[in-house]
């Protein structure tokens, strides 16, 4: 995309977009989901994955769970229990078992319209994708602790501005009470003002600077500013996107509907350092998980427990070796690293 600018006195008004979204002020309307990201801090790209393919990926996840042969079967709801499938926490996060590199996870990451949405936002095809997790949310679980809201933003308050677009591909019907992503509409615009106001507060502990938890006082401030918390509804195959500054969390379903999704977060390769790409290469080759930052800012290598002991069913590899199309391999960042050598 090229920029067309009109000079009006001392200031220059950008008429058409140039470079990545948010990089400069603009009055331009894209006429697509990017307008929603700009205005509301989040967007839904309907049908980014064709519905039948999304449902097939959900089916693959049920099969994956069943193949542990711990007792879970999709047709018997009484088998939804921590003893009968891999460790999945109250927020639906599965953080082991090589799930970041399973066939369904990589298939979703390589979906052309998913990749294309991020290409549009960053105005480049030279992207790298996070090696992030999958969310497997079952309703009515009594075998684990309840999922309490943890409103947060996934960005260091001391590093303002648009830095990262997060995403997930929703795989099952996801209505208003079905559990899933809750966002604070429009609060990304208030992020800098918010953090200026709250810089001296006692912070909620975080293991990374790239996470900030909103206290009750912080939530009240957002409410006073007129921000609303909304449940994002989605159909199978919809891509949900949000600015990392947008406050968000997830809720468990109040219905009998399961909620499955694959996290998909992309950023320009140019935003990653050579050292980060080297870490990313290691994570890919050793089929490790990363957090949502695609520059492999943190590799997730946590122990997985079963009955208080290391889970003997945990594994470091997916069921099959990772097979990628050419585009998918580029998204690992490895070809770019080789160019830097
Ligand atoms: Fe988050």
TrEMBL record:
Gene3D superfamilies: q2cbj1_9rhob like domain. Signal peptide: none annotated. Pfam families: PhyH. This is Phytanoyl-CoA dioxygenase.
């Amino acid at each position: 995309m090229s920029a067309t600018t009109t000079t009006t006195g001392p200031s220059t008004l950008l008429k058409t977009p140039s470079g990545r979204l948010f990089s400069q002020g603009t009055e331009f309307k894209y006429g697509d989901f990017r307008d929603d990201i700009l205005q509301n801090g989040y967007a839904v790209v309907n049908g980014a994955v064709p519905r039948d393919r999304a449902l097939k990926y959900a089916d693959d996840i049920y099969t994956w769970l069943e193949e542990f042969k711990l007792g879970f079967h999709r047709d018997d709801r009484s088998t939804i229990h921590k003893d009968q499938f891999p460790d999945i926490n109250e927020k639906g996060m599965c953080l082991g078992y090589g799930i970041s590199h399973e066939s369904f996870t990589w298939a979703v990451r390589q979906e052309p319209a998913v990749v294309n949405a991020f290409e549009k936002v960053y105005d480049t095809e030279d992207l790298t994708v996070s090696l992030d997790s999958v969310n497997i949310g079952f309703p009515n679980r009594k075998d684990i602790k309840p999922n309490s809201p943890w409103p947060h933003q996934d960005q260091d308050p001391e590093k303002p501005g648009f830095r990262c677009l997060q995403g997930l591909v929703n795989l099952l019907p996801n209505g208003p009470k079905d559990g899933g992503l809750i966002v604070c509409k429009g609060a990304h615009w208030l992020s800098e003002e918010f953090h200026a106001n709250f810089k001296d507060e006692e912070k909620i502990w975080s293991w990374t600077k790239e996470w900030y938890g909103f206290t009750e006082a912080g939530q009240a401030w957002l409410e006073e500013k007129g921000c609303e918390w909304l449940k994002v509804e989605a159909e199978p195959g919809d891509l949900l996107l949000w600015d990392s500054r947008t406050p968000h969390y997830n809720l468990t379903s109040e219905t009998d509907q399961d909620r499955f999704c694959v996290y998909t977060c992309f950023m320009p390769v140019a935003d990653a350092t050579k050292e980060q790409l080297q870490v990313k290469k290691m994570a890919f080759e050793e089929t490790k998980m990363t957090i949502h930052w695609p520059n492999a800012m943190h590799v997730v290598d946590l122990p997985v427990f079963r009955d208080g002991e290391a889970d003997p069913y945990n594994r470091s590899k997916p069921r099959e070796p990772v097979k990628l199309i050419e585009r998918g391999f580029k998204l690992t960042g490895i070809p770019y690293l080789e160019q830097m050598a």
